[in-house]
């Protein structure tokens, strides 16, 4: 029998402790099945978070005296369990990064991964210096985050507030294993956070590559089709955002929630022809949950210019403003 994965071990520990299981089951039982994480997504997000916690714990330990580092040494699974019980990981910005990376990984596995690597390699050798530099930065950023199996998450991928909470949470968990009154781990956490730079995160690095391609006049229908076929979901979202003149976060949401014409709307805002839209619905559709490509084409055809223009204006409003309008019962 195969050994249980880390996520299973955490579940077993929770069952042994028995605390709050009925409340958790009550919540889980009535969740909309269409919105629940799949077991694959849950396992991938858990593995990415454990990898991030492990790497940050290692970085903190190298910044403290040897005897403190030895006393605090433990399995990242144990640190994650401690932080979970304390409610320190239930942070929307942190989970949002993990979910986006899991979604991008799922789409990437469905695409032509070999062709995706070749495309990035060609861009690294591009004749345009700005494109080549941006592609090299992305290749290095992905390399730093990749283990033998998956593309993980780095500290720079997190917003500053989420990075601070996670680093200091890990530092506190380590300190409790050695000496919670010692100043070493708080100082190590502050030192590690001095290196945090969200502008060097993977999302920002991908955005700069697309901007360089745009400046070089290379963001067009052919690039959209190429990224779709290769499963480059994040680069595809940034490209469509550039073409549609909408925020990248909005483009990502429309791309990854394609039902009811949302992906069709994004492609119309990006000025994509019907043939390109049809090819994208077929190639990337199954990986993003698009069940009926033909119905999505019908929605694409039914979108009027006025609706497309109005939707673009709405999406260009600040996200917080749109969410406030929605909460107040008005269309954002």
Written account of the structure:
There is one protein chain. This protein has a domain at 244-332. The protein has 20 helices and no strands. The chain has helices at 6-17, 21-29, 39-61, 66-72, 76-85, 92-110, 113-124, 129-145, 160-175, 184-193, 202-215, 221-229, 233-244, 248-256, 262-269, 274-283, 285-288, 293-302, 305-315, 319-327. The protein has 332 residues and is mainly α. Helix content is 70%, strand content 0%.
Summarize the entry for a quick read.
The protein has 332 residues and is mainly α. The protein has 20 helices and no strands. The chain has a domain at 244-332.
Order of helices and strands: HHHHHHHHHHHHHHHHHHHH
Largest sheet: none
Structural class: mainly alpha
How many E strands?
Answer: 0
């Amino acid at each position: 029998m195969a050994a249980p994965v880390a996520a299973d071990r955490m579940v077993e520990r929770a069952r042994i402790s028995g605390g709050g299981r009925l409340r958790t089951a009550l919540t889980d039982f009535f969740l909309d099945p269409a919105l629940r994480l799949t077991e694959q997504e849950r396992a991938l997000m858990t593995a990415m978070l454990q990898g991030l916690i492990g790497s940050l714990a290692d970085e903190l330990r190298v910044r403290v005296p040897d005897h403190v580092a030895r006393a605090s040494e433990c399995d990242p699974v144990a640190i994650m369990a401690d932080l979970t019980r304390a409610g320190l990981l239930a942070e929307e910005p942190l989970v949002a990064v993990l979910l986006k990376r899991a979604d991008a990984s799922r789409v990437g596995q469905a695409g032509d991964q070999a062709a995706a690597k070749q495309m990035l390699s060609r861009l690294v050798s591009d004749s345009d210096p700005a494109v080549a530099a941006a592609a090299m930065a992305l290749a290095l950023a992905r390399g730093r985050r990749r283990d033998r199996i998956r593309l993980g998450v780095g500290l720079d991928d997190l917003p500053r507030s989420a990075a601070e909470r996670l680093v200091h949470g890990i530092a506190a968990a380590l300190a409790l294993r050695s000496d919670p009154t010692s100043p070493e781990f708080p100082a190590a956490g502050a030192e590690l956070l001095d290196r945090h730079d969200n502008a060097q995160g993977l999302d920002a690095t991908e955005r700069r590559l697309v901007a360089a391609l745009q400046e070089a006049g290379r963001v067009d229908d052919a690039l959209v089709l190429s990224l779709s076929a290769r499963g480059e979901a994040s680069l595809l979202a940034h490209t469509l955002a550039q073409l549609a003149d909408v925020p990248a976060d909005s483009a990502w949401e429309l791309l990854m929630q394609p039902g009811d014409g949302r992906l069709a709307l994004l492609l119309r805002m990006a000025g994509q022809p019907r043939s390109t839209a049809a090819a994208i619905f077929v190639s990337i559709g199954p990986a993003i949950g698009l069940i009926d490509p033909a119905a999505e084409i019908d929605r694409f055809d039914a979108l009027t210019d006025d609706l497309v223009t109005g939707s673009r204006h709405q999406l260009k409003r600040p996200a917080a403003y749109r969410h406030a309008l929605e909460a107040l019962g008005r269309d954002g």
